[in-house]
Write a structure and sequence with these properties.
This protein is α+β, with helices and mostly antiparallel strands. The chain is built from five helices and nine strands; from the N terminus they run ββββαβββαααββα. Strand 8 and strand 9 form a beta hairpin. The model has no long low-confidence stretch (mean pLDDT about 90).
């Protein structure tokens, strides 16, 4: 066995779990049940075990603390400020997860798990406010290259619902006709022979996401521009 003289920092994984409530983005936070920052709100996460990868650690902690599993995860940064954790030298790798609105429950070292609107967050533990800021920046970049909006929708959805998600992520408004024309141009949607009635005065067409077309476009290197 080799022996190293260098100190070994601990490694953690944190997950920024986002959903859409129909009007704005919401983020899932857990209330810590142990010190440090007991009682404070934080991103779901924890220490990586010696026999797992950082991706496995992220998925495990997410399931233990929120009951969520098999969700869309995308790494976006490593955070290594020297004094970011009062327990010692701890480096964290952060990922964002996009999910449909669902019920979650606290577990493991979480007292509670709750959704918060992204614009109205409580005081956060560690440096998690910085992680969230960086995660949102990365999400706004990725939305042009990945189908991130679709991960927060049901299997079938209206064009208006899809537009509202893109507007919430990018923090800007789009013309309804132009948005629909652009999305249909990329052939990422299948128009279904079904409608819903969002208001008493009109019907809306339903769509589904063409994942197979997205995979083809991704290989060619396409970009969604708005």
């Amino acid at each position: 066995m080799y022996s190293y003289e260098y100190p070994r920092p601990a490694l953690t994984a944190d997950a920024m779990v986002l959903t859409f409530n129909g009007k704005s983005l919401e983020i899932l936070l857990i209330q810590r049940g142990i010190e440090p920052y007991k009682g404070s709100w934080a991103l779901p996460g924890g220490f990586m075990k010696m026999d797992e990868t950082i991706e496995q650690c992220t998925a495990r902690e997410l399931e233990e603390e929120t009951s969520l599993k098999n969700v869309y995860l995308q790494q976006f940064g490593c955070f290594s400020t020297v004094n970011r954790d009062p327990r010692g030298r701890v480096v964290t790798v952060a990922s964002y997860a996009l999910v449909r609105k669902s019920e979650v429950k606290g577990g493991d070292d979480a007292m509670d798990a709750r959704w918060f609107e992204i614009e109205n967050l409580p005081e956060l533990a560690f440096d998690h406010h910085i992680i969230i800021e960086k995660g949102l920046e990365k999400l706004r970049e990725d939305i042009h290259f990945r189908p991130v909006g679709f991960q927060m929708l049901e299997e079938t959805f209206t064009m208006s619902e899809l537009q509202h998600i893109y507007e919430a992520i990018l923090n800007k408004s789009f013309d309804r006709r132009n948005f629909a024309k652009k999305m249909l141009h990329y052939e990422l949607l299948t128009q279904l022979n079904e409608t819903v009635r969002p208001t008493a005065k009109r019907y809306a067409l339903l769509y589904s996401f063409k994942k197979e077309n997205y995979e083809l476009f991704k290989k060619k290197g396409f970009q969604l521009e708005f």
